[in-house]
């Protein structure tokens, strides 16, 4: 009994394709859904999976042939009918002699996280690894997770390459026992031809045709197909890039305006990280859901700056933490939230949930994007405890070590754009919270005090709030209370 392999549907208005590459040859064993060949149309590249398991019996359409939709490409015979199958299976006993193997699985990702993207492999197949040595890094929509080696040995197989999306129970790689180390040197001869400029994979026929017509050296084209195979679009990109270079070089001497280079050749397309995708989705959802409004005020930072200057050395000596302005703002916000509790509330269906505690979110920029670690029960903490917590969370955020739990449950958020030089902005709510305070750059400005123009260190404050549960009066009152506490920090001690 045999199974036919036919050309799949190629897409609207596409009626034919070229067989670019066969990954299997007659006699090879194939598994269900294993890739058999690659077809190339004028728009896309299509991979053809095996419709059934068995042995490749016959290839009807060879590489380079043009085939129509539903055309017969090959036939697969059942395993028992193949005479060449035992030959392919012969090396199996050798693999069994390499010793025990250990599977590398996706670690626990955190509550409600079901998948991750493999961002970086630190080891490659054939490398010796020690127990607990970092093998790879996974990226979820909130945090990065490092995957250590569960045992010592040799990395014999990588099942999830960089860029692959894996679920929470997926196998990432296999580590062989110490006997497997002998397999590593065997890979060296295979790599030798590549080092000398040769390639052990066939480029797509259409790509080879264009390279021959244009006189392009195949070694100069970076392939994007399977195993580095050069595809038609790779050659077209190389042609465009080559055309752009002479135009740019000739521009200074040309008596007329130079012809613009192909913009596509000067662009770089990078897939968004899962964290950036989540940031984009959450911020847009916030705009679409909340009735967001922003109110502004300004604060004279003279008193807070003077108090900090007077006590910062003594504070650091006693508490081992640097005295910054974030503790002043956190304290001021906690104080104001007690008076205007709706800013610390959230909507749940048709209910308003008032929080009788303050879990303060402190927005922090990291190399991979914005995260918001949460300082729990900030309203019960001292200046020193707040500064220590912010410093510790900030470092963990920059190092990508924050856990899911550390970024959940916030009731209000502070975002400090001033550290980047921002003078004014409208922060976006962090759902389901109803308020976020934006801090900005402290800048000397002329202001009127007691009828006199004086120079004072001023900062603009911005409170974005959900107008569905926070009225304008409440929002303005909150911001005024923060302003008053910062302009006279003694009010915090007196609970005024």
UniProtKB/TrEMBL annotation:
It is an enzyme of class 2 (transferase). Its EC number is 2.3.1.61. GO terms for cellular component: cytosol; oxoglutarate dehydrogenase complex. Its cofactor is (R)-lipoate. CDD domains: lipoyl_domain. InterPro entries: 2-oxoacid_dehydrogenase, 2-oxoacid_DH_actylTfrase, Biotin_lipoyl, CAT-like_dom_sf, E3-bd_dom_sf, PSBD, Single_hybrid_motif, SucB. It catalyses: N(6)-[(R)-dihydrolipoyl]-L-lysyl-[protein] + succinyl-CoA = N(6)-[(R)-S(8)-succinyldihydrolipoyl]-L-lysyl-[protein] + CoA. Keywords: Acyltransferase, Lipoyl, Transferase, Tricarboxylic acid cycle. One of its GO terms (molecular function) is dihydrolipoyllysine-residue succinyltransferase activity. GO terms for biological process: L-lysine catabolic process to acetyl-CoA via saccharopine; tricarboxylic acid cycle. Residues 2-77, 101-176 form the Lipoyl-binding domain. Pathway: Amino-acid degradation; L-lysine degradation via saccharopine pathway; glutaryl-CoA from L-lysine: step 6/6. It holds the Pfam family 2-oxoacid_dh. Residues 202-239 form the Peripheral subunit-binding (PSBD) domain. It comes from the Bacteria. Signal peptide: none annotated. Forms a 24-polypeptide structural core with octahedral symmetry. Part of the 2-oxoglutarate dehydrogenase (OGDH) complex composed of E1 (2-oxoglutarate dehydrogenase), E2 (dihydrolipoamide succinyltransferase) and E3 (dihydrolipoamide dehydrogenase); the complex contains multiple copies of the three enzymatic components (E1, E2 and E3). Belongs to the 2-oxoacid dehydrogenase family. E2 component of the 2-oxoglutarate dehydrogenase (OGDH) complex which catalyzes the second step in the conversion of 2-oxoglutarate to succinyl-CoA and CO(2). This is Dihydrolipoyllysine-residue succinyltransferase component of 2-oxoglutarate dehydrogenase complex. It comes from Thalassobacter stenotrophicus. The gene is sucB.
